[in-house]
Amino acid sequence: MQTILSVENLSKVYASGFRALSRINLDIERGEIFALLGPNGAGKTTLISIICGIVNASDGHVRVAGHDIVTDYRAARSLIGLVPQELTTDAFETVWGTVSFSRGLFGKPPNPAYVERVLRDLSLWEKRNNKILTLSGGMKRRVLIAKALAHEPQVLFLDEPTAGVDVELRRDMWELVRGLKASGVTIILTTHYIDEAEEMADRIGVINAGEIMLVERKDALMRKLGRKQLTLQLDAPLSAIPSTLAAWRLELDANGSELTYTYDAENERNDIIALLKSLGDAGIGFTDLKTSQSSLEDIFVSLVGKDAALADTGNGNGKGQVSAQ
To answer: What is each CA distance from 11 to 47, 60, 73, 158, 185, in whole angstroms?
Structure first.
C-alpha cells in the first residue's frame, strides 16, 4: 500500500516541561480507515493538532503525500480535513454559506454541485438556508463534517465524530465514512466507542503516555492478542479440578458447575481435542459448551491498564468507551 501520511520521530514538549509526545513514528496508508485509541492524556489530540498545523512540534517531521507540514504547509494542509471534538461553527452564517466559505479558504474554486452533494449526503440539504444557531447539536455536528469535506481532502481526521450524538447521525456518519473510503479518502479517527473502531477500522493504533504502543491490522491484532475461551457446563459439579488436569490451567466457577479454558485461537483445533480427551480420561462429563472471544475493548484494557480505561469512561459502567484526548 502507498503511504499518504508519514510521521517521523515526532515529539512535543511544552514550556512547563510536560512531554506530550515522545518520538512518534507512524505511517498511514492511502485509502485506509485508521483508528487511534488511548486513555485521557495519551497524546491523541496533540498528535492530530500537530499534523493539522494547529500545534508546533518540538522535534520530528510530518509529511502528507510527500509535502512537509512545516516547510510546505499550504500544500500539506490543503490535503487534510479535520472534524474537531468541539462544536465551533459560525452561529449567524447559513449552512450553505459556512460550507462554501470553508471551501474557499483552501483556494478551491466554487463548485455548487459538489457542496450540494456533501450536504445531501449529510442530510443537511433541507437546512442549507438555516443559520447555524437555529440547528440542533446533531445538525451542527453534521455541518462540521461538511466543512471538513468542503475542499475535497485526501486525508480526513475525525476526532470523536459521534460522541454525544444520536443513533441516526452515527449511522449516517459511518455510511459516509464507508463511501469516502471507497472513493479513496484516508480516514483517521479517534472514538469513545471501541465497537466503532472494531467495526470500521482497517488498522488500530494504541497510544499511551505520548508513545505508540502498538500499530496492527485489526484482524491480525485480534488473532495475536485476542483470547478465546471454551466454557463447559458439567453434568455433575466438581469440588476441585483434578490434579491430572493442572497443565490445562482451567478455571472452576464458584458453584463447581462450569469449567473455563482460555486458549490461543491459532492452536484451537489440537488444543480442544486434547482437552476433551483429558476430561474424558478424568471421568468428567459435560452437557453443553460454548466459545467466546475477547473484544477489542479487552485488548485495549490489557495494553493500557484497566484503571486507565475505566477512568476514561467517567465510571465503571462505560463499556466500550475510551477517551480521545
So the answer is: 9, 6, 18, 22, 27
Place of cell 512540534: 57
CA–CA dist 313, 309 (Å, integer) = 7
Asked if residues 92 and 78 have their Cβ atoms less than 8 Å apart, the reply is no
Burial pattern 175-200, b for ≥16 Cβ within 10 A else e, equals: ebbeebbeeebbbbbbbbbbebbbeb
In this structure, the number of other CB atoms found within 10 A of the CB of residue 273 comes to 10
Reading the chain (325 residues) residue by residue, the pLDDT tens digits are 799 999 999 999 999 999 999 999 999 999 999 999 888 788 888 999 999 999 999 999 999 999 999 999 999 999 999 988 776 667 889 999 999 999 999 989 999 999 999 999 888 999 999 999 999 887 888 899 899 999 999 999 998 777 666 677 777 778 888 888 998 899 998 876 777 777 889 998 988 889 998 898 888 776 666 667 789 999 999 999 999 998 888 999 989 999 998 876 555 556 788 888 899 999 999 998 887 766 666 666 766 765 454 344 443 334 344 333 4
- Answer whether 208's CB lies under 8 Å from 42's CB: yes
CB 298 within 8 A of CB 226: yes
Structural domains in the chain plus CATH codes: 3-79+153-223 (3.40.50.300), 227-293 (3.30.70)
